[in-house]
Design brief:
heterodimer; A: eight-stranded mixed beta sheet; elongated; B: alpha/beta; Rossmann fold; 2 domains; 18 helices
């Protein structure tokens, strides 16, 4: 238990979810980069189109049509309206797309109002791309998804099941069956939860893992713990550190290295106690979740963008033994 | 950080700002500590301004909910036991109240209030689409939070209501929710979708006109006609509440624009939440809402950007050996092992440098904030989690007194 799972990248669909602010987009981008480093071609899908994902590769926003944003990595932004049009064209051979005009708005309205329609258009499009790839009709081997945050992911993953509960007959019903099957296949799909060792993200991760297991049949891959602070001291080293703060040593230090000595010691104390609080959350996570945990260290860097994506990809690769 | 302003007019502290307001709405992207900051603000206002203060929270961390005695309360507001505050060494001038938002319950209340008769109300509540719809359509979470706020404000029971906003995909969504709600029920699209069923009778066959026929041909093929009829029937029932809903949504919108309402944006100094916060500030101003305060949460201490600290850290690393020798001579038993002391000194120096890099980046990001409201508060990164009343009061000290983080 809790060991790394190198076979993660043998699957065809990797979804990344997590609470807002934990670094979900960076992690998804890093996973795509890592996959491309080991020779795979990747389709990277951004579900909540904010342009955060292509930004991880120093690239501007992308559209619904996949575009190469980095060698070996194609990216697209989900657009449910475009997805609906594509669905109509491919599955129903509805000829009116070009002249849909105001009807497009009506369809969008239905998609907004009817439960699960937006979700099925999102997950359906993703599943369709995965199937194209498996059947050799696409120029990528792996689909990596920067999926919705914790609050929406279960509805999205379960959309194909939910819609069949509501719709008694019709093509929508029959055409969601294969989506459910593809998502439920552990040799194809894995949902990964990104978190940080903090109270709320850990609580949401535990809750989400339980919800996914209970409500949908989509296999879980790993939990990725982002921003893990380094352990500064061993126990004996910490005793030495505490001794430095005693009056005589700290006066000596100030005399030798300047008035900043206190600040340096205070900063180390802050680092130690932050690490300690986070370690407690981490232990709780380890105890509560029966999944491989992958750790990404806190990055003390000025940069963001491709530089950070590379660093996270390297950390992820090291964890997976790749 | 914005300098203290010379002119007396705009408030410069949260205390001054809230003294003149009845509603403070806290917004920001997920994970920035919005809930804790909102709760700390309510507690701080109770302590400093007095009166009856309510914090309306959406999804607090379990330990915080426990600390406030909020567990299992649903929609009901309740007073935080004065004993809990006293035990934490807090002597409030006023009363602190807390309530959570139960989305489903709030929607049910709304339907019961606005349905023309009981039969319609129950037909809606029992509709199999209803649960699904209330959870999803037109950002119903966002709307219901604002609706609930209106409801509570209308009771006139509180001097100040502090609102923690729901996590949304897009933090701006809830600002537009009341207007969108009104548009939705007044919209042509809704009329169009329900028209064939209205003409054909509630449960009869639908009558298609020329305009709507192509739509139904497509929609039937996707959704199946039975499902479509379920949707239409549901909306037909819902439309009977149109008047009440729209009037209400407009009133909610007016309240948010009222002089007595202010907005506070909470963010951490990381690139993504900060961009979101900037978009949020611009959106508030563009929509003519009152942008009252900006809270920079979980910031690192200023001493990490100190030149003296950097120089001392450098010496600890470069002169670790000689320093360890000198320290061994102090006679401290734990400093007798020179190699170990040298290692610890290097670690301490490296750690300072590491955190210093992050603090510098924070300062740079802070300086980039384009639109800064009059009140800016900084709350430091606490070494442990905020999960009790003492913790909230600690945040409150930074929020209210402008204590340097």
């Amino acid at each position: 238990m809790n060991g790394p799972s190198p076979e993660l990248f043998d699957r065809r669909l990797l979804l990344f979810t997590g609470k807002g602010g934990v670094g979900k987009s960076t992690t998804a981008a890093a996973a795509a980069l890592l996959a491309s480093n080991i020779g795979k071609r990747v389709l990277l899908v951004e579900v909540d189109a904010k342009g955060d994902v292509p930004a991880q590769f120093e690239h501007g926003p992308v559209g619904f049509t996949p575009k190469e944003i980095h060698p070996g990595i194609l990216a697209m932004a989900m657009d449910t309206e475009a997805s609906l049009q594509e669905y109509l064209k491919l599955n129903l051979r509805v000829p009116v797309i070009g002249r849909l005009g105001p009807l497009a708005h009506v369809l969008d309205f239905v998609a907004t109002a009817a439960p699960g329609v937006k979700e099925i258009l999102t997950i359906g499009k993703i599943a369709w791309e995965v199937r194209e790839s498996i059947e050799g009709r696409a120029d990528f081997d792996l689909v990596v998804v920067d999926a919705s945050a914790t609050g929406h992911i279960v509805a999205q993953l379960g959309a194909s099941d939910a819609i069949r509960d509501l719709v008694d007959v019709g093509p929508l019903r029959s055409q969601t069956q294969w989506v459910s099957e593809l998502l439920a296949d552990p040799s194809i799909t894995a949902v990964n939860v990104v978190t940080t060792p903090e109270e709320m993200p850990v609580a949401e991760t535990i809750e989400l893992v339980a919800n996914i297991r209970r409500e949908v049949k989509v296999p879980l891959g790993s939990v990725i713990v982002n921003r893990v602070l380094p352990e500064l001291f061993t126990q004996t080293d910490e005793e030495t550190f505490e001794a430095l703060r005693a009056p005589a040593p700290s006066q000596l230090l100030t005399a030798r290295v300047g008035a900043g000595a206190t600040e340096v010691l205070d900063a180390a104390r802050l680092a130690v106690s932050m690490r300690r609080t986070r370690a407690a959350h981490l232990e709780y996570l380890q105890r509560s979740v029966d999944l491989p945990l992958l750790y990404i260290p806190y990055l003390f860097v000025r940069a963001h963008g491709l530089r950070v994506t590379r660093m996270v990809a390297d950390a992820l690769g090291a964890e997976l033994g790749l | 950080m914005s300098p203290a302003r010379a002119k007396p007019e705009p408030p410069t502290t949260l205390e001054q700002l809230l003294a003149a307001k009845e509603i403070a709405v806290f917004c920001g992207s997920g994970g920035v500590g919005k809930t804790s900051v909102a709760a700390a603000t309510a507690l701080g206002a109770t302590v400093r301004l007095g009166g009856k203060v309510l914090v309306l929270t959406i999804d607090p961390a379990r330990r915080l909910a426990t600390a406030l005695g909020l567990e299992g309360l649903g929609n009901r507001a309740h007073r935080v036991e004065p004993g809990i505050l006293k035990a934490a060494g807090i002597e409030p001038r006023g009363e602190l109240w807390a309530a959570m938002l139960d989305t489903k319950q709030s929607w049910d209340d709304l339907v019961l209030r606005h349905a023309p008769d009981e039969e319609t109300a129950y037909r809606i509540l029992e509709n199999r689409l209803y649960t699904n719809l209330t959870a999803r359509f037109v950002q119903s979470h966002d709307y219901i939070a604002m609706e609930r706020l209106f409801d509570i404000h209308a009771t006139g029971e509180y001097d100040l209501i502090v609102v923690d906003t729901p996590p949304t995909r897009n933090a701006i969504d809830f600002l537009d929710a009341p207007a969108r709600m009104a548009d939705f029920f007044g919209g042509r699209l809704l009329r169009w979708i329900t028209l064939p069923y209205r003409v054909g009778g509630r449960r009869g066959t639908r009558v298609l006109n020329v305009a709507s026929r192509p739509f139904y041909q497509v929609a039937d093929r996707i959704l199946g006609s039975q499902f479509l009829q379920d949707i239409a029937e549901f909306f037909l029932n819902f439309q009977s509440m149109y008047e009440g809903f729209v009037t209400r949504a407009r009133a909610v919108e007016r309240l948010l624009h009222d002089k007595r309402t202010t907005f506070a944006v909470v963010t951490t100094l990381e690139a993504a939440p900060l961009h979101e916060a900037e978009r949020f500030c611009s959106a508030l101003v563009a929509r003519d809402f009152h942008l009252g305060a900006l809270v920079l949460n979980k910031t690192l201490p200023d001493y990490l950007r100190d030149a003296a600290g950097a120089s001392a850290a450098g010496s600890c690393i470069d002169d670790a050996g000689p320093l360890a020798d000198a320290l061994a001579d102090t006679g401290e038993p734990a400093l007798a092992d020179r190699a170990r002391t040298a290692r610890v000194l290097r670690t301490v120096g490296e750690s300072y440098r590491n955190f210093s890099v992050v603090a510098m980046r924070e300062a740079e990001l802070r300086a980039e904030l384009a639109r800064v409201p009059d009140v800016v508060a900084r709350v430091p990164s606490f070494s442990s989690d905020i999960s009790d009343v003492e913790g909230l009061e600690a945040i409150g000290r930074y929020l209210f007194t402008g204590a340097r983080a």
